[in-house]
Amino acid sequence: MKEELIISGRENFLIDPYIHIWEWQIPVYLFIGGLAAGLIFFSSLYFIQGKEEKMPFIVKIIPTLVPLLLVFGLFALFLDLKHKLYFWQLYTTIKLESPMSWGAWTLMIVTPLSIVWSLSYLKEIFEHWQKNYPLLYKLTSWIEKLILRLGIFRSIIKLGIKQRKPIAWIMLVMSVILGIYTGILLSAFNARPLWNTSILGPLFLVSGFSTAAATILLFTKDKSEQKLFSKIDLLLIAIEIFLIIHLFMGFLASTTVQIEAAQLFLGGPFTVSFWVFVVFIGLIIPAILEVLELKGFHIPVAIPAILILIGGLILRFIIVEAGQITRYLY
Amino acid sequence: MKEKSKKYMNSYLAGFLLGLTLLAAFFFTGRGLGASGAPKSVIVAAVDLVAHEHAKSSPFYSKYIEKEEPPIKAWLVLEVLGVLMGGLISGALAGRLNLKIEHSPKISSKTRLVFALLGGILFGAGAQLGRGCTSGAALSGMAVLSTAGFVTMLAIFGTGYVLAFFVKKLWI
Amino acid sequence: MGPLIAQGVISSEWNYVIAFMIGISFGFVLERAGFSSSRVLAGVFYGYDFTVLRVFFTAAITAMLGLLYFNYLGWIDLSLIYVNPTFLWPAIVGGVIMGAGFILGGFCPGTSVCAAAIGKIDAMIFLVGIFLGIFIFAEGYPLFKEFYMSSNLGDIKVFDSLGISEGLFAFALIVIALIAFIVTAWIQNRTKKVEY
What we know:
- The complex is a heterotrimer of chains A (330), B (172) and C (196).
- Chain A is built from 13 helices and no strands.
- Chain A has 330 residues and is an all-alpha fold.
- Chain A has one domain: Formate dehydrogenase/DMSO reductase fold, CATH 1.20.1630.
- The longest helix of chain C has 28 residues, at 121-148.
- The model of chain C has no long low-confidence stretch (mean pLDDT 90).
- In chain C, helix 1 (12-33) packs across helix 5 (109-117) and helix 5 (109-117) runs antiparallel to helix 6.
- The interface between A and B is medium-sized, with 14 and 12 residues.
């Protein structure tokens, strides 16, 4: 009988560090970041194209969500920080080689701009609420009055209305950076083979824009906007599927560690959650439903929209979770 | 009636396709189709989560919680999730997607819902006792020619016919 | 060769993805056939719509013949196929309770999921009922445990119970199904149409 026994300290539990420190906060933050980036992108894009009056919901109303989302996302990020009191130090340095620094600064610019943007459409927003959500309007109409009473807000609103064009341009560029950054943040971890691929940037950007399109679909009342965004969303889904295929092709053509990282999704513990929840429920089935809807079948548009949002959120959870398992040490 | 029934597939063709699906299930996994097992997995997981000690000491739950797999890793849960999606796609294709309570004109929506709830409770409990529902025990059982499959099928439909007379108003 | 998972041809993680795909096909066919309507389902008990009988019988026979044929070709190892064990009296009593649930609620678990998917509120309530029913059974399990485990006849097959050969039984089942199809078509023509 031939038997080999290998005794090695490497077999001890956790002798190879398995660092699992990111829980729900980071994926939620990445999801929200991508979603907000997409919303900003669409509204500033259509503003620049001069469609302010033709697509009022997208240009004027839906960006209201952005500051709320960003504040919530930043709060999630803040919860994740170990040394919470030192968060401001992110803003005492600019490190061009650090995606975290890029992200912090991008958010620093985008968040106030998105607030100014929404303030400049204050009147339209409350008119929209009054028309479509009377209860919400009743509960919040005092906010409008309060804001208008404060001089500082009044001057911000005046400035915002006057400077919309430059603000739109800055937001357009920043939204793309923000969207890519949600993926690059992970790519920058060289020691995590699953994350160490340049496809994550575009993948998260496209996925974020797709969730933004889904959010617009969910809330818009305008038929032509619905149609347009169904088409945009279909295109984004197609690109996303293409990127996912390339992600795996890239991994499988790479080194052993990356092949093993890919195996987590191709027979490993993340197979079900990825293929069923992200690819089927989050991409393919909503795509089928949207195609049917565009062909004139009667389908409540909320169904594909919600499926896309769920798929996008789960994608980030899985990538963050799985990435922390993969490593170079062997 | 004519126009409505047109939207449904020919019953024999549908049966043939369902048979192929069942055959595929056997060919891939060695087990047939099922449905009632999925809510059972969810119930077991939920009870285990809320009252772990109770679940561990109960002779029913303890049979299932030893494996320590989350319910998402239960074959039937994923299958039933698929059923949901498959039904959704088919309903979308047929233009049948809308929230409604379907009932005989002779009863109110409320009556329909009360009986639906009652029927669900009976079916849920009966499926546990009978070790599977119409899909898991009767249909899959008949396909493998198990005695249990035929017995369950006869019991379900036999009872249906016996009781049908008494609850006629619910349906026609 | 088959069943592929049991033979280790496909890893068990993919098994769940396959479960999802098979479920899609299952749900799609059920919905297409009209099983998402409780009034179609109930029709079988009143003679105005025999869809259930046709679909159910055709499916069982298709799968049965498929399994026998796959076995004949050596594509599938029938000994690895799960045969649900027969606990005679629990199966009968369980079936009776399910039958009552069927005629009162108008769905069975699989069809209720399907109907809930297209927005039938009655089906969603039926599903809630299923959860409750299972919970009640689980909590009361110690009371019925003895009965639940009684009259265990093992993994017996129906042709053994009847004392005839497998082939003969399969043939007889097909003949019965064909007769049922013809008779029910005749009955359905004679029954007053029900609008739904």
